[in-house]
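Researcher: Next entry in the queue.
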Amino acid sequence: MTVIESSAVRVDLCKAAPRVHPRPEGQDRYTISEVVAFTGLTAHTLRWYERIGLMPHVDRSHTGQRRFTNRDLDWLAFVGKLRLTGMPVADMVRYAEMVREGEHTFEGRQELLEQTRRDVLTRIAELQDTLAVLDHKIEFYAGAHRAPERA
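Model: Structure for this entry, 151 residues:
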């Protein structure tokens, strides 16, 4: 949970700004091409997510066309965040399976997310160290440009 605290307010950023959907509830039936346009994912990726169980139970029209809902868009946004963490696809699928299994899997989901969070913090520390090295080198080269020529 990402939390911002000011002098009197504590805000959970995951709840602070609800995602804006293109259509209101009840009118939220999106084709795969609409979801591609909205999410930036490819149709191939969406079909693959469905095939591996990461995006199960996508509704179908009477002609067999996929029909995504606002809830599906929210799930895809969350999966996108998990991808950015570097979580392996197998763990994402396991998480999705636990969600489908119900509330009795809360503890397992929490453990998986806590491990992912630890991994992210480790990566952030590594990236900060890498950034410090880059900054040092940039400063070195900037100083070299300003130094007079040596005979």
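Model: The radius of gyration is 22 Å.
Researcher: Noted, moving on.
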